[in-house]
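Entry: Thiamine transporter
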Amino acid sequence: MVNAIIILVSLILLSFYLIDIKNNRIDTKKIVMVGMTCAISYILYMIPFIKYPQGGGITLLSMMPVMILSILCGRQSGLTAGLIFGLLKVFDGAMILNPAQFLLDFIFATMALGLAGTFGNNKKYKVVYGCILAIVVSVSISVLSGVVYFGQFAPPGMNLLVYSLLYNVSSAGVEGLVVTIVIGILPLNRLNRAVNKKDLYY
């Protein structure tokens, strides 16, 4: 029953995403940037500082390229890059238990990183708020997956929600916090001007 509900909600959310993409098409320049972003994110993902036994851990800021892309190029580009990045992560020996868990851990948890540009990029505080939103949503999805699908790995007697929170906040949450700090320091105005030059590919 839980699997069916997750799959149904996932299909609804993916439908909204596809409608959004149809109404706000990504141009050729952004498609190229999405591809580059996914490649960089995946390379950084392959450099783990801490790797947890059931998946996850702390990598070399692999979340950051997707979040920066969302901030500079908009939500559609960020969500698309997050989607592709999640699919690429499957090639690194992912633990897939069923389709619903796959959707949570390898589709929506990474797509959520594309929400970093939700509040715009014209003010630093808006960028930070967007990054926090993206990380909170991403980690929350992973926590849900942990509670529903990885409870058997929790120490005996430990509450499943507490276990999943500790597992995911200490990995993706910590990395997300570091990424937010780094993005907050970056000269995003300069990056934005460089990315949005009309003659960038001419």
